[in-house]
Amino acid sequence: MELSGGHILVQCLKDEGVEFVFGYPGGSVLHIYDAIFHQDEVKHILVRHEQAAAHAADAYARATGKPGVVLVTSGPGATNAVTGIATAYMDSIPMVIISGQVPSPVIGSDAFQEVDTVGITRPCVKHNFLVKDVNDLAETMKKAFYVATTGRPGPVLVDVPKDMTDPNIKVPYKYPKKISMRSYNPVVSGHKGQIKRAVDMLLTAQRPMIYSGGGVILGEAHKELTELTQLLGYPITNTLMGLGGYPATDKQFVGMLGMHGTYEANMAMHESDVILAVGARFDDRVTGKLAEFCPYAKIIHIDVDPASISKTVKVDVPIVGEVKPVLEQMIELIKDSKTKPSKSALESWWQLIGSWRDVHCLDYDRTSSVIKPQYVVEQLYQVTGGEAFVTSDVGQHQMYAAQYYHFDKPRRWINSGGLGTMGFGLPAAIGVKLAFPEANVACITGEASIQMCIQELSTALQYNAPVKIINLNNRYMGMVRQWQEFSYQSRYSQSYMDTIPDFVKLAEAYGHVGMLIEKPEDVRGALEEAFALKDRTVFLDFITDRTENVYPMIEAGKGHHDMKLRVAPGTPVDRELS
Amino acid sequence: MRHIISILIENESGALSRVAGLFSARGYNIESLTVAPTEDSSLSRMTLVTSGSDEIIEQITKQLNKLIDVVKLIDLAESAHIERELMLVKIKTSHDTREEVKRMVDIFRGKIIDVTANSYVVEMTGQSSKLDAFIHGFEEGSIIEVVRSGPTGISRGEKGLHL
């Protein structure tokens, strides 16, 4: 079969089983768009800004486990996508980005809409390619999907000069079934001896902790993690990226850890003697002050990326390998082992954890006459039966979502954890809704974040992707304001806007339903009404408490045991508990 | 501590900038970097001299290995190895100093490869410290120009860095 480059690209996507391409046309990709016009197997989703194309494809990948695909033009098309690519890179999301490039003879001449896309994206992709020969196109695409989805996943960009897709140049097409690269061989199975050492260490622990991250979700290892945890009876905490990797409503789950983690999770990490880290990378938001991180613990770390091991925290038993097969082996060894976890030690450990739980660190003022943001998330959890896909933007609302929506399943919590990209939530919700048209999809956001990609309301209408936008509107960039309150004596520099749009009218202008909710007693009803409108996008503008803060909080440069807690409802003060 | 990392890397455009970009993005220092194709034209051999604590060197080698274009690498400093650097130096000469310069070149087993009425160009190979010593043997102002390749290295014994 002889095809032109444009048709080859589209055919490659079909052969990869790609369902959606998120993109925006422009000069350098017109041949590709013409090839898209001639078929309807691969559906193109036209966004309103290339950043949103990357976020939507990224969220599609997070929710389904399949790679997201993005198509943008050269120059501004590619640079607009960079924020979305970097977002996917930081959270290790499999994604393939096809970017147009000016024709190869004019590369380097500062041609119209030319940028060095390969150069600009190099630090925020797993790998990238510049196609120099149309005969290499199919193989390059295969490599891109292979690299993006194996090992530690990540975005891979293929930069395609316009002459590579010239409709007049046709070459034989064959999509490789398999590909091997001499320079890329990700490790799959862990070292047996190390796994044995890890199991021995775990079984003799007195105050064990399991700390799991996004790697469990990406590696489809939630079942194995759950089995291992319940087999041992040990407490488990998840990172922000790992939520849903272990059922949040289970009694062994002590909540999220880190800067806004629960008191019990952070204290348990601090006092633990053996920590099993699974697919987590000891991010600074998790560890707090490194010198005070888990001072009494021996650490076992399972990760598919050797560079993640001992990067910031020196570990005692490193295991390089995919988390799923490693956990399977650990489960076998634990079952076969004569050593069993010490019942008495575990009992007193759980008692201690129980005393930390009694602090009720997530309590807030439920009698308030203004809407508390936490209350909205709690009500959302109840109205959706805990089954919704929840996307978020970045800030206080993101933390409330992580703390108060209890994820029992993986791939339901979709947020920009590593890069912290405001504007992620709405396009992400659209990407998820397209993948799961029957599911409830909620975007928890704030009035600042939502305005960073608000134009995607238009995309939601065009592709009939009805999502529910839960806008926690406190008329502040809440997290910035919180830091300014704590660290800058409440000098609220530029953390509020004088003019905030009428979101109800804005939603209506885009063809959606808008609701304004100002009283706590109206929250539940509004949510029920919104979710009953199955085929409409609904923008719920909740006017929330302006000065509410996210607690607990480990301030920058402090250790896990040094948390700021809420004492009396609404009165933030430090409390000595360590 | 000083480390010499020897890398086999795909001979692709952009491969060098991936390595250089990694060092600048992660704040690692590069003392020198040499690169040229090998007997297999699809591969380049890169020799990179860097320094840092054991933890930093471990991260550097892991991060380099993570680059898709990197096929293999070794840290030469971990075992017995040979290290050589090429230097070309242009030295001011006069009737009075010519003999003295020539003696110095002989002592260091260099070669004079270009001569004018007022200058020599000297070629010299050796360990970097030897080249340093040669340069320090001259008075300030007598050296017109110094060009150094940066060290390259190879391990001793039968084993080699190849596919």
Automatic annotation (TrEMBL), chain A:
Residue intervals of the Thiamine pyrophosphate enzyme N-terminal TPP-binding domain: 4-119
* Known catalytic reactions: 2 pyruvate + H(+) = (2S)-2-acetolactate + CO2
Q: Which Pfam families does the entry link to?
A: TPP_enzyme_C, TPP_enzyme_M, TPP_enzyme_N
Please name the pathway: Amino-acid biosynthesis; L-valine biosynthesis; L-valine from pyruvate: step 1/4; Amino-acid biosynthesis; L-isoleucine biosynthesis; L-isoleucine from 2-oxobutanoate: step 1/4
Q: What class of enzyme is it?
A: transferase
Q: Which domain of life is it from?
A: Bacteria
Identify the EC number(s).
2.2.1.6
Q: Where is the Thiamine pyrophosphate enzyme TPP-binding domain?
A: 393-541
Q: How is the cofactor bound?
A: Binds 1 thiamine pyrophosphate per subunit. Binds 1 Mg(2+) ion per subunit.
Family, as annotated: Belongs to the TPP enzyme family.
Q: Could you tell me which NCBIfam families the record lists for this protein?
A: acolac_lg, PRK06466.1
Q: What is this protein called?
A: Acetolactate synthase
Q: Which organism is it from?
A: Methylomonas fluvii
UniProtKB/TrEMBL annotation, chain B:
Q: In which pathway does it act?
A: Amino-acid biosynthesis; L-valine biosynthesis; L-valine from pyruvate: step 1/4; Amino-acid biosynthesis; L-isoleucine biosynthesis; L-isoleucine from 2-oxobutanoate: step 1/4
**Can the keyword Transferase be found in this entry's annotation?**
yes
Q: Which InterPro entries match?
A: Acetalactate_synth_ssu, Acetolactate_synth/TF_NikR_C, Acetolactate_synth_ssu_C, ACT-like_dom_sf, ACT_dom, AHAS_ACT, AHAS_small-like_ACT
Organism superkingdom: Bacteria
Which terms are listed as keywords in the entry? Amino-acid biosynthesis, Branched-chain amino acid biosynthesis, Transferase
Q: Where is the signal peptide?
A: none
Q: Which reaction does it catalyse?
A: 2 pyruvate + H(+) = (2S)-2-acetolactate + CO2
Tell me where in this chain the ACT domain is found.
Answer: 4-79
State its Enzyme Commission number(s). 2.2.1.6
Gene3D superfamilies hit by this protein: 3.30.70.260, ACT-like. Chain A, domain 2 (3.30.70.1150)
One Pfam family named in its UniProt record: ACT_AHAS_ss
PROSITE patterns in the record, alphabetically? ACT (PS51671)
Task: Please give the CDD domains that the UniProt record associates with this protein.
Answer: ACT_AHAS
The terms under GO molecular function for this entry are: acetolactate synthase activity
Sorted alphabetically, which PANTHER family does this protein's record hold? ACETOLACTATE SYNTHASE SMALL SUBUNIT, ACETOLACTATE SYNTHASE SMALL SUBUNIT 1, CHLOROPLASTIC
Complexes and interactors = Dimer of large and small chains.
Q: Which family does it belong to?
A: Belongs to the acetolactate synthase small subunit family.
Task: Sum up the protein's function in the record's words.
Answer: Catalyzes the conversion of 2 pyruvate molecules into acetolactate in the first common step of the biosynthetic pathway of the branched-amino acids such as leucine, isoleucine, and valine.
Know the name of this protein?
Answer: Acetolactate synthase small subunit
Lineage here is: Bacteria, Pseudomonadati, Pseudomonadota, Gammaproteobacteria, Methylococcales
The encoding gene: ilvN
